[in-house]
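Entry for the shared binder. Reason: the reviewer on the internal report wants the predicted structure included alongside the sequence.
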Amino acid sequence: MLYYAVVFFVIAVIAAVFGFSGLAAGAASIAQVLFFLFLIMAVLSLVLGLVRSGTK
């Protein structure tokens, strides 16, 4: 689960770089949505991974 949290975080950072820097001005709003979506998914994956590893 921690692997997925890192993957979602990396994807969120890449989306932020392309969306917030002006390189893809037309896709900035899509990048912002994806950034927050992946950020939420990364946090959820991290929390679930910590909960599941703590119960074993």
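Summary line for the report: The mean pLDDT is 80.
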